[in-house]
From TrEMBL:
Keywords: Signal. PROSITE patterns: PROKAR_LIPOPROTEIN (PS51257). It comes from the Bacteria. This is Uncharacterized protein. Residues 1-21 form the signal peptide.
Length: 320
């Protein structure tokens, strides 16, 4: 255990040295609020530049030598990924940890990210253990996550003639503003946000009921749309063997949240236009339509219905 803790702090110090030498402003930097006697590590973002060969480099050559001396492996991505980034004009991707969540930015704009608070962070190690996922020093990591601010920016060569995009774009994009306006207009029209609540109960024999109705009655009402909820006895036995009696997923204006036995885990945050930024980004990727024909034509429809989906309170709870 002592060796693992030493390795953890050695890694933090290495990140600090690297970030302070080959760095750029980090989204969310300076947002940590802690007492003077508490540990705080709030650093700029480490910038990795990826060439057409896929090899990552740090601008500071002396620093790169230091990293090599410490035995840190080279960072690389497949060259085809670099080509795809250039073809899609994705100039940089940033991952940044803040007290409120893990921010994800593409071309300086936020896309759906992970948000958390103290309760959801405390619940995360137990949830990971339940599903057999082992995170080294999870107790220490999640206890300090709201007081450690670090981030990485992966920067790719822009296409010839492309206008340079700032690492962080202030304000909302046009797509985000349009989405928020559409959501406000929808809520003003309906008054109260729509609500869908689906409590699903599984019997010992695998039978299903939804609220007071049998699954057969619900299937007749929905035209078979709920068939995906059926689970075999083997799957039910596996879930019950994990000690899970209740599994829920809910959506609303803030995002998508999973609960285990009533305890909420970190949220997939799609608020403040983040989902619209993602849809707009996907729309601008020409290679996507080549790989998945017809996907591009679906984006305008998704843009239209997304604000309505986000404004709806949806709750699906599976009882085992």
């Amino acid at each position: 255990m002592l060796n693992r803790r030493v390795s953890f702090w050695a890694a933090i110090m290495l990140i600090a040295v690297i970030a302070l030498a080959g760095c750029a402003p980090r989204a969310g930097q300076g947002s940590i609020d802690a007492d003077a006697d508490q540990l705080v590590i709030d650093l700029p973002a480490l910038v990795l530049d990826f060439g057409m060969d896929g090899m990552g480099s740090i601008q500071n050559a002396a620093l790169a030598d230091l990293v090599g001396t410490l035995g840190v492996m080279d960072v690389a991505v497949p060259p085809e990924v670099v080509f795809a980034m250039g073809a899609s004009n994705i100039q940089h991707i940033q991952v940044s940890n803040t007290p409120e969540g893990l921010l994800l930015l593409v071309n300086g704009r936020s896309i759906p990210n992970i948000s958390y608070d103290g309760d959801s962070l405390n619940a995360l190690p137990g949830a990971l253990n339940t599903f057999g996922v082992v995170v080294p020093m999870a107790d220490l990591l999640f206890a300090l996550v709201d007081r450690i601010g670090i981030g990485v920016i992966a920067r790719f060569e822009p296409a010839p003639g492309a206008e340079m995009i700032p690492l962080y774009v202030e304000g909302d994009s046009e797509a985000a503003m349009a989405a928020k306006a559409a959501q406000e207009e929808f809520l003003a029209a309906v008054g109260t946000p729509p609500r869908i609540n689906l409590p699903v109960y599984y019997g010992a024999d695998g039978s299903i009921s939804i609220g007071d109705l049998s699954v057969q009655e619900m299937q007749e009402m929905t035209g078979g749309a709920l068939g995906a909820l059926e689970m075999g006895l083997g799957s039910l036995s596996m879930v019950r063997g994990m000690g899970i009696s209740q599994l829920g997923i809910s959506t609303g204006a803030d995002g998508i949240t999973i609960t285990i036995d009533g305890t909420a885990l970190p949220t997939l945050d799609w608020s403040d236009g983040k989902a619209s930024n993602l849809v707009e980004l996907i729309t601008e990727i020409p290679l996507l339509d080549m790989a998945m024909p017809g996907m591009g034509s679906m984006m305008p429809m998704i843009h239209q219905i997304l604000p309505l989906v986000q404004a709806t309170d949806f709750d699906l709870t599976l009882h085992f």
